Fold this sequence. Notes:
Blueprint: H1 2-16, E1 29-32, E2 35-39, H2 46-49, E3 64-68, E4 71-74, H3 80-90, H4 117-126, H5 134-142, E5 191-197, E6 220-223, E7 243-246, E8 255-256
Amino acid sequence: xxxxxxxxxxxxxxxxxxxxxxxxxxxxxxxxxxxxxxxxxxxxxxxxxxxxxxxxxxxxxxxxxxxxxxxxxxxxxxxxxxxxxxxxxxxxxxxxxxxxxxxxxxxxxxxxxxxxxxxxxxxxxxxxxxxxxxxxxxxxxxxxxxxxxxxxxxxxxxxxxxxxxxxxxxxxxxxxxxxxxxxxxxxxxxxxxxxxxxxxxxxxxxxxxxxxxxxxxxxxxxxxxxxxxxxxxxxxxxxxxxxxxxxxxxxxxxxxxxxxx
Length: 261
């Protein structure tokens, strides 16, 4: 009897542990640890010195030392096969580029695209998850490399960029190596929807603990460069701090998503 009571107490304690103290992540996800990181641009670029940066391109400043609770993030961007299971269960609208509403042959593992913000949010809810906040996305994308512009160690001049840029199309997830947290394709392949509304001035007044973005807005934030970006002429666009935004109704061939929990 004493042994049964002891086991019951252990079970209760384990179930009450916060996320940061748990060791196993849900299938297909990784745990992003709690803690502070510098969110935003911490490096100057040559255009700053000559004062030609449009106001919209200064929306990642000032950098903020942000504290984010632990959470889980999908290892991979949502694939076409993942999204097809959601459509079969819910009767939703398939991406317009799928012939006769079916996944193109050989593209089951390709990151899904041409999905708008509302459809992405509906998928995450169906899967028992949600879209990540902008702060969560950036913390996860950095992979523990704080105040670095990319989720990989510094590259030597002429080294190939280890991400899906200039590929001419969306490719299979996991083609390149993961970042320090075990996340694939956070930079490159498809840009990713976040939960947050966009505000060009948000960094000037954002909360320092678990920022959730503005309460309202016109556009939603998308993060991470896409397959159509150039790796050399658009280095800024493929950085972990670069902010982008678009109409939540837009279905774009360079935009996909992954879920958080």
